[in-house]
Structure prediction request, 537 residues.
Amino acid sequence: MVPAVFAGIGALWGVGQDGSSPYRLRMRRLSAVGLASALGLLAGEFALRSGHTAAVAGCLVSTALVGGLISLRGPVLSVTGMQLLLGATVGSGIAVSGPWWQAPLALLSGVLLVTFLSTSPWLWRRHRIESDHLHAVYRAAAQALAAVGTPHAEAARRSMTLALNDAHDVMAPELAAATRRRAEDPDALRLIDALRLAVRLGEVVSALVGEGRPLSPGVADLPLKMAERLLPAGRSTTDQGLLRAEKSVPERDLRSPAVRTLVELCETAGTEAATDVVLSAPVRPRPGRTVRLRYAVLLSGCVLVAYISAVLLHGPRGYWLPMTVAFIYKPDFGPVLRRAVHRCVGTVVGVAAIGAVALLTGNAPYALIGTVAAFGALMAVGVRHHYAVATTGLTGIVFVLVDLLGDHRTLYGTRILDTTLAAAIVLVANFLVWPDSAGSWAAAQTEAALIAVRRYRDLAPSATSAQRQTLRRAAYRRLADARRAAAQARAEPLPPKRTLPDWEATITAAEQVCDAVTAEILATAPGTTGGHAPDSA
Prediction:
C-alpha cells in the first residue's frame, strides 16, 4: 500500500506542474519535478529514520535554503527548488516501513506516469501547441489593427506584445532543435517562417498604432489572411499563388508606409522566408544574488518556524505546516498575499467537500477511488485556471492518501488550522521583514525597461537591421516585464502611509515612444520591412 500511496503523491505533484506548454518544455519541467521530489523525499526519510528532531529540522532548513537559492533563477529551477522542499517535508513527516529506496522510487514512478500521459499526444499532434500560439499572435494583430485610432489601441497592441512573447517562448525549443538538425522537419520550418513573419507584422502593428489613423476593415483582416497561408491549421497554399491583398485595401490607407509594408508582407506570406529576422530572445533580468539570498533565508526561517509549530501542536506527522509554507511562499508565482488567501480558501472548501463525501459513503473503497478521480480532475482544471480550485482538489486527494497510510485521526479542523498558521507565518515574514520586496522589483524592472527604450530610441535610426531587432526586442520585452511586475506590486499590501509610484503611466509613455520610433523608422528607412524580434509588437 505504501508504494502505491507515494506513487499517487508523485502523480499528484506531476499534475500540479503540468500545463499547456510545448512537449519538450513539459518533459523538462516534469523531469525536474520527479528528480527533485525524489531527492528531497530521500533526504527527509533519512533524517526521520535517524530519530532526532534536530536532524529533521536541519534537513528542512537545508533543503529550504537550497531551494530558495535556485528558485528565482528561472521557471524550471523554480519548480525544482519548490519540489525539493516538498519532498523533504513529506519524507521527514511520514514514517514508512520498508527499504529506504522504495518510497522515492514509487514517487518518481508516479511523476513519470504523468509525464508519459502529458507528453504522449506529441505522437499525433506534434506541433499543435506552437501552431495555436502563433494563431493567437495573428488574431491579436488583427484586433490591434481594428482598434487603431480608438482609445483601445494601446491595450490591443499590448495584447499582441504578450501573444508574441508567448509564441516566441513556446517556439524556443523548436528553434533550438531546428538549428541542431539543420531544419530537417518541414512542419517546424513552416512554423519558424510564421514566427518570423509575425515578428515583422509586430513592427507594422506598432507603427500603425503610433500613427493613430483609423484603418479600414480590409487592412485589419490582412493578418488573418497571412495566418491562413502560413500555419499548418490553415488551408494549403502551394497552388494559390500570391495573395492580392492590395485589392482589399482602400487607396487612402495605402498612403501610409506601414500599410504598404503590411500589404507586401501579406502578398509574400509563405513564398519567402524572413531570413533577416533574428529570433533569439533577450535574456530576461532576474533578481540579483542579494535578493535570492534574502528570499532563501526567509524561506528557511519560515519552514523552521512552521516545523517547530507543527511539533508543538501535533508531534509526529506534522508535515502539513512546512509543506504549506513551501507552496505559499513563491513570489515568482504571483502575489504572495493572493496565493496565501487562495490556499486558505481552497483548503476550507476541500476539507468541507471531503468531509461530506466521507459522511455519505463511509469511506468505502470504490467511493475512495471515485473521490480521488473527481478531486484529481478538479485539481487539473485549477492548475490552469485558479490556484484556489487547484488547492481544493489537492486537499481532497491528500486526505484520501493520508487515510490509506493509516492515519485515521480527525484532521479536518487540524488541516484548516495548519494552513491558516502557515499562511500567517509567510505573510509576517514577507510583509514585516521584507515589505518592499515586490515594490523594489517593480522599480528595478521599470528602470531596466526605460534604459532599453532609451537605447532603442537613440540607436535604432542609425543601426543595422539586426541591431535594430535586438534593441527593439529588449525594449518591448522589458516593458512587458515591467508592467507585470508593477501589477504584482499593486496586489501586495503596503505599509501604513506608503504609496507606490505610478509605474504604469511611465511604462505607457515609454511604449508610446517605442511605437513612434518604429513608425518613423518604417516611414524613413527603405528596405526595413524585415521586422524585429518576436516580442517587439
Q: What stands out?
A: Residues 234-242, 527-537 have pLDDT under 50 and may be disordered.
